[in-house]
Amino acid sequence: MKLMYCAHCQDIVRLFPEKRSCKCGKSWGHYLEDNATTVQTWPGLSIGIANPDFAAAHQTFAAEPNAFTPVLTMRAWINPASEPDVKFVQGEEIERDPSGTESISST
Ligand SMILES: [Zn+2]
Prior knowledge:
about 30% strand, binds zinc ion
């Protein structure tokens, strides 16, 4: 499954065929009809989670909610901009302060 990370508010949103937005509303994205390709705003990140890993972790948790096991871990990654099934459209620019650095806070 693909998630969208907003570079403005740092929210992470799971994408669906319906257009969804992050908490601040400056980023949005959705799946196309092929159910594999996503479109989302730039700047931002496309995050992938390995579906088989998620399914195995979910089943493991359901079977024993109080136990930790390595099966609960999942592979996740940032899709490169060259990924063919991730399309970026221009969103809102990142606001910059006078020093020219990105105004992303860690709060
Ligand atoms: Zn946002």
